[in-house]
Every structure is written in structure tokens, then in C-alpha cells.
Amino acid sequence: MAKVTGLGGVFFKSPDPEALCAWYAEHLGMTIGPDFNGAVFHANTQPSEGYSVWSPFKDDTTYFAPSDQAFMINLIVDDLDGALAQVAAAGATLHGEPERSEFGAFGWFTDPAGNKVELWQPDGGDAAES
User: What's the structural domain count of the chain?
Assistant: First the structure.
């Protein structure tokens, strides 16, 4: 039986894909590919504590709020507090305070296209305690 072995990507609509890619490149240091609007994250560049999650949520979840999108993007970062400060300085709306769990530290913002983004710093970092 063939099996899924990982997450291949997150694909979504944006009213201005080029501007959104530029915003992520400028404010979160994402390297945007020259052949398409997007970033590629190779497994060998991920932190050893990082991993990808595939998880459907119930239709009535409020976890993605205030975005009305049917998805939420999760990005691994090396400095949660620094990344949140960078996106806030760039006009992103932060949501709540960073939280720690057994999985690491998490923080949330809405990007310029209205997508809720969860930033994750896996255990081993110095992100804020909740």
C-alpha cells in the first residue's frame, strides 16, 4: 500500500501573490523561488525538533479566527518573539500572547491578505512563556 510520507506544501489564493511573497521575504526572511511565487523548505534545513502536521478541524472551529479562511498556515521560526515583533512592525495584527506547550512556543498574526498564520518555535528555543 502506498503511504503519505510528508507535507508537500501549502497552496492558497491571494489577491496579490507577488506582493504577499515580497512581504514574507522582507519581514520573515523567506527565500522566494525564482521560478514561481513561493518558498521551498528542504528537510535538511528544518530544525531537528520541527515536523509537519496534517490536521483537519471541525467546520465550526474558532481556532483560525479572526480570519474567515478555511485554512491556517503554520510556519516554523527560529525566534518566535523576534518574528512576531518583525511582522507587527510591518503592520500585521498579532493575536493573543505567545503560548508554550509540550510542542514548543506558538504565536499568531494575520498577514496582509487576511490569512491567520501560526508561528511555531519548536522546543529548544527561548520564546516567551505564557
Answer: 1
